Amino acid sequence: MRRKKRPVPRLKSNADLHENARKRVEKYNHGLNEGYHQGLQAGYGSYNSYFEGTSIIIPSYNEIEWVKTCIEGIMDHTDLAYEIIVVDNGSADGIEHYLKQLDGQVRYRILSQHAGFTGAANRGFMMAKGTTILLLSNRICPTENWLDNMLICLNSDRDIGMVGPVSNALNGNQRMELLYDNMEDMHESAIMNNMSDSSAWQRTELLSTKCLLFRRELLEQVGYLDEGYQDAPFEEEDYCLRVKLQGYSLVCAKDTFVHLALIDEALELEHNDTKNAAIEASKSYYVNKWSTPSHVLIDLADRRKAEGALMRSLGAAAFYPQEIAVKGLGEMIFWISNGVRRPIEGEWEQPVIQLSQIDILRWAIGESISAEEASIRRSVMHEDGADSIHHNGTITKKAEDSYYYIENGKKRKIISLLAAEAWNLLTRRQTILSPAELDAIPEGLPIIAPIRLRQAL
User: Fold this and answer.
1) CA atoms of 58 and 389, how far apart (whole Å)
2) The pLDDT value given to residue 386
3) pLDDT per position as a tens digit, 272-288
4) How many angstroms separate the CA atoms of 336 and 339, rounded?
5) CB 378: neighbour CB atoms within 10 A?
6) Is-contact 142 74, C-beta < 8 A?
C-alpha cells in the first residue's frame, strides 16, 4: 500500500516567513555567543594551567631534515610526559607542511619575521605548558634515557637551576668524545654511558643553550633570553649569569650523552665574516652590560642572606630600580614603588621602560596612582637640593663611571653604564658624597640592565 504523503507545512504569509527567519537567526546568534563565551572562559581557565611534564622547544630555520631527525629521536627515546614545540623562523624548506602532517603531535609556530635562535626560543618559552622546559637545537640527536637522567639530576636538589648533557661537539665540561663511526654505534655507546649516576654530575659555570633543561619557575624568576645578543655565543654567558644571580647552580650531567650534528664546513666558511662580526658585537654588548661579571657574583654573595626573601619574591625584578614607570604587553603603564606596580591613571607623558610580561608580573599589583602624583614624584628625583640624599632615586658617583642609586635608605650599585642608560637613571639628580658618607649608607642589591627584546613577549 502506498504511504500517504505528509502535507508540507506552509507559512501563512511573508510576515510569518520573516518571523521564522528572525527566530532562527536569534537562536544561531545565541548559540554562537554562548559557545564563544564558554570557549573564552575555558581558554582563560587553561592559560595558566600546566601539565606535569617537559616542554621541548626546538627553534629552526631551513633545516627540515635535522628537525625531522630530532623529532623522531625524541619520540623514539622519550617515555616521560612531554610536548614538542617547534618555532620556525620562516623557513623556505616546506617545514610547515611537514609539521601539519604530524596531525597534532607537535605544536608549532611559523614566525613571519626571522627572530633567530634566541627569539624563536623565547616564543617557545611563552607557548610552553610543561612544568619543566628543555631548549633543544634541531641538530641534537636524543639518546636512551637522555631526558630521564637530566630530570633526575635537576630534581635531586632545588638549588640546581639548569642541567645540560655532554656531547661530541659541545665545549668545556660538556664535551665528551665517545668512539663511534656511525649513528647506530653512537646509540650503542650512549646506552653504555647513559646510566643514571649522581657521581657523574659536575657543577659548572656555563651551560650550552643547545640542550638546556630547567624548571618553569626558573623562567618566571629569571625571564627570557636576551635578544640583544643576536644569536652570538654570549647569550649563554648572559643567561647563566642571571641564573647564578638568583642563587642557583648549573650542573653538567655526564651520565647523559647526546649527539650534536656538526654544521657543514663549507657552509660555515661561507658565513664566516658575518659570524665573526656578530660575535664581536655580542661580546661588546656583554662587556658593556655586565662590566665585571665575576665581581657582581662575589659582591652579591655577602648580601644573599639579608636580601634572600626579596630575591625569592621578586626574582630578577629584585635587581631592577624602583620609582620608575614601566609597561608590558598591554597599554597599562605602572609606577614601580615599594615592591609593587601601581597602575597610573590619566595621561602619562614621561618616559616609560618597556619590559616583558614576565618582568611586569613579578611585581604584585598595588593601588592606582594618578599621573599627576607620579609625575611629581618623578620630578622630585630630577631636582637639585641640599637634602637630596634623603630622596629615593638620587644618583651618587663613587669613581669614574661607578654609580650608586639611593633607594629606601640603601645604596644600590649600578653595575654598568649600559644599565644606567637602559633605566634612564643618568637623567636623575646626582650628588657627590665623600667615601665616608657613601660607606655609611647600607648596601642593597645591585641594579642590572633589563633584557632587550625584538618582539612582544
Assistant:
1) 50
2) 45
3) 667 788 889 999 999 99
4) 7
5) 19
6) yes
Find the farthest-apart pair of alpha carbons in the chain and give their distance in angstroms, rounded. 115
For the chain, how many residues are written? 457
Residue written as grid cell 611563552: 126
Which CATH architecture is the domain 51-290 placed in? Answer: Alpha-Beta Complex (3.90)
- Cell 621602560, residue? 353
Kindly report, residue by residue over 302-353, the tens digit of the pLDDT: 666 667 777 788 999 999 999 999 999 999 999 999 999 999 999 999 999 9
Q: How far is CA 400 from the centre of its chain?
A: 34
Q: Distance (Å, rounded) from C-alpha 357 to C-alpha 338?
A: 19
Helix (H) or strand (E) holding 124: helix 116-127
What is the Cα–Cα distance from 181 to 178, expressed in whole angstroms? 10
Which set of grid coordinates corresponds to residue 393?
A: 632615586
Residue 24 phi/psi, 5-degree rounding, is: -65, -45
Q: Select from 385, 410, 399, 391 the least CA-distant residue to 435.
A: 399
- For cell 544561531, the residue is 28
First-to-last C-alpha distance (Å) of the chain:
73
Q: Hey, which residues does 162 pair with through a beta bridge?
A: 214, 250
- Cell 590619566, located at residue: 346
Parse the chain into domains and list their residue ranges: 51-290, 301-439
Cell of 230: 643576536
All cell numbers assigned to 215 = 624548571
Residues 280, 301: Cα–Cα separation, whole Å: 30
What is the value of pTM for the model shown?
0.86
Q: Other C-beta atoms within 10 Å of 121: how many? A: 27
- Position of cell 624548571? 215
Which set of grid coordinates corresponds to residue 80?
616521560
